[in-house]
Amino acid sequence: MTVQHVAIIGAGVAGLNVALALARRGISSDIFEQAEALNEVGAGLQISPNAARCLERVGVLSRLESQWREPREITLASGVSLRRITGLPMSEARARWNAPYGVLHRATLQTVLAQAVAEEPLANLKLGARATSRDIAARVADGGRKPDAIICADGVWSASRGRIDGSATARFSGNIAWRFVVSSEDTPAFLNREHITAFMGPSAHLVAYPLRDVSGFNLVAIAAGANPGETWDGNADHSWQVAREKHFGGWNGALKRLFSKVSPAAWPLYEVGDGRWHNGADTIMIGDALHAMMPFSAQGAAMAIEDGFELAAFLAEMPAPTAFAAFEAHRRPRLERLKKRTGLNRFAYHARGPFRLGRDAVLTMRSPDSLVRELDWLYGYEAYGLQQA
Q: Is the whole-model pTM more than 0.90?
């Protein structure tokens, strides 16, 4: 028997999106979120064409397009001199990959997904609700519907990961992302309002892009730092001061002046290694709970969105155990390739000494089109079930 009803643990981007993807295929779901309200933390994120196509099929892309910006270019620049090294044209995203490339605040994406879930009769969001095995059993006994499958979508520090023996654990990468938003009136002139700009320096980099939905500029600085623990809202004053002196001390004066005026939030960057994806029966993980990785490819949200869309397609075609195995066989090669690409980007963005000089020389000589072609496998990806959705 194919799957008819699912329990989803976690109401972040992964959980809300998979609920919508399931509903589009006639599968109902209960979404268990332990928080009393969906107060999404964070700053900006990027939605690349591979994810935008999935969002279009679940019915939310048009709502997002009215609130996001579509950058004309992804610019790679020097954090020391501010010199533009090269750029990847993103204004051609719709023509090249048949979908847009957008940037927006994380809270906007979650709000739009939550609104769509609230309008969907087949999706039932339960706030302030835990979802242990005992909790789910109690809800079924109290008149709730027994799930045919359980999807763990509760993020990198997943509490439900323990339902799967042999699953991987989250580990601190040794790096911190300091995130902050600068208002439009305080945005320095050297930040291009039409571009995503990655400023690269020895052992550190900074990504900056405009956010239409909050009328400001999103900035994320990434470098090595001490682990503040499993928290998104820890005090960042000391770690930021250390990073400014140790990793950004040799950067351009204009950037250092900007850094001195902000009080960012520190996000410890955790990774999830290789392990079991599901229990072979009724429970599977998706999103950061399954494969959290460093943000050097800006694909965290996109992979969670792809996960949900493809898992829903498999669950609509076959029983849960078979669907889980098919999903893993289909997804694992893509995620492994992305992890390798992310590792390469990490090395390139934080290159030092002769490696940094060689990187700049190679990037300067290569044509923008050749750089964009290397992203066709990533941005041009057609998710499983896209043609049937």
A: yes
